[in-house]
Amino acid sequence: MTGWVAALAELAAAERPAALVTLLRVAGSTPREPGAKLVVTAEALHGTIGGGHLELTAVETARELLAAAARDPGAAGPLVRELQLGPTLGQCCGGVATLLFELVLPPPWQVAVFGAGHVGKALVKLLADLPCRVSWVDAREGEFPAALPASVRRVVTDAPEDALAALPAGADVVVMTHSHALDFQLVEAALRRGDLGYVGLIGSRTKRARFVSRLASRGRTEAELARLTCPIGLPGVGGKLPAEIALAAAAQLLQRRTAAAACLESEQAPARSGGSHQG
């Protein structure tokens, strides 16, 4: 496998952002031919577009783009720059290089599903076709299908609370394990974190009432408890079959994600346009 391809594959598997720099066009003398590629992360480089000031400038630009995308995912579009190697960069080649910068970012929507039972299987099947990255957690390895979609990562562990602790801020969490005790442990840990998105628990209103009462007795605040969604799923959608419950839950997750994205876009629009002026 080509070096830059392998590097991008490894970074994608580790969910680390990267920039792919391609030498798009050249005129005159340049250190590399068109098609040369360089993968840039915040800490490392993979491949080369010829070294020297050209590559140094490319790395600086790529890292500026990565930093901008971290602040505003809407700023992740491709960029083309034309660089004069002689007058601008002081390289003896003296040619002109046109560079294409493309960001390769982890999906901003991360969902963790705890439990590989019937509803968990149905939910993950639906989420696999949505623009999200799914972490599917269960201690029972035999409950997972032999093959999983590329967007789904299987986590087999006897310590699911560690998997929850490792989730990025803003991740959505759906708890539907085979054990009420484990459900409680995971819900309590999710609410205690305070930086997750959706925290959903499969079950009835009676189950919610029991959990809320016990959580409150263990120090969880009203604000934290209000973040717990139980029962899960859009009201009026679905039924009692696993696929129906999963469909309602996926619809609720997508609805919340869409609303959050619209809110973020609304907040960031003035900043992109230079802000507003009040007199």
UniProtKB/TrEMBL annotation:
InterPro entries: MoCofactor_Util/Proc (IPR052698), NAD(P)-bd_dom_sf (IPR036291), Xanthine_DH_XdhC (IPR014308), XdhC_CoxI (IPR003777), XdhC_Rossmann_dom (IPR027051). It comes from the Bacteria. Residues 111-253 form the XdhC Rossmann domain. PANTHER family: ALDEHYDE OXIDOREDUCTASE MOLYBDENUM COFACTOR ASSEMBLY PROTEIN, XANTHINE DEHYDROGENASE SUBUNIT A-RELATED. Gene3D superfamilies: NAD(P)-binding Rossmann-like Domain (3.40.50.720). SUPFAM superfamilies: NAD(P)-binding Rossmann-fold domains (SSF51735). The lineage of its organism: Bacteria, Pseudomonadati, Myxococcota, Myxococcia, Myxococcales. Residues 12-69 form the XdhC- CoxI domain. This is Xanthine dehydrogenase accessory protein XdhC.
